[in-house]
Amino acid sequence: MIHLAFLLLQILTPIEGQQENPIVRVEREAWIMGTSAVVIIEADSREFAMQASETVIRELERFESVVSTWRSDSELSLLNTSPVGENIPLSQELFLLLARAEEISRRTKGSFNPFMGSLIKVWDLRGEGRIPNSQELQTATRHAQLDAFALDFTHHTVARNFNSSWIETGAFGKGAALAGLIPLLSGSVSYAEINFGGQVWVYSRNPTEGLGRIIQIAHPSDRNESVLSVRLRNQSIATSGISERFIEVGDESFGHILDPYSGFPVDPWGSVSVISSDPMEADALATALFVMGPDKGFEWARKQQDIAALFIRDNHGQLSSKWTTSFQEFFSVPQHSTKGIR
To answer: Which residue segment(s) compose the domain that 253 sits in?
Structure first.
């Protein structure tokens, strides 16, 4: 269920000599898939702007009904609770989404893993948190590997192979939802900016005009503090880290991002930001690179050549950064001018 928090209409002043009519800006916020979705639309008329913002919200709501693992009636939840070994027919949308997630998982050698449900459960990441014993951790890790689900590409069916296995969309669901908005808004509005739980997608009908929109990158340990900024033109940026989401068990704190190899939470070393024209790729790769770590992750991304990734290491409050060549073009100011980062 979506709860609209606010609606703001603003008339933007036209630039002299560039357009005859003013641009109308609409801002809306909704609560979808357990997080905030802030929708900004600019269009040639109030009617178009309102219609486009409604299209965005309704599409995100529809997508939630397909992939939510919090709703028992979603298509994905029905798959996650299906009998072991039974081939479950899926909609083309969900099957292709899972196939893409599996492809990215294989590409990253499992650092991004959509089949992490058994590990999420054994650590009770959706509850108060707990530390599993060695046997629980070993079993859960085994049941969170790529063979936990079998995809049949001929019949578009999926079967669970272990009773404790289930698919979690937290590492790619927001990006996939944003990707679904691209064909709906392209060409119909002047500008769109969607901030979906921290992942931002920017669309501009005329991307060659202007310098793009500035998007802030947060401090790895404090999402309310900006340490870098980038300019986006028809791209999405996703950041993975554990600045706010963690569990406390006794005197110990653990992050919410788990290493699919060891089964343990990833050490809170900093954050990774990935920029891509494909929001799902940005979402999934940000998680994968965070799991790999600042050194192995950087080397993997650098060898891919086309991946725009920024790594910020937080060593007891002292920040340092490095980025792939593809990321350089997005900085809004020279990197050496940014405060607080070496």
So the answer is: 211-342
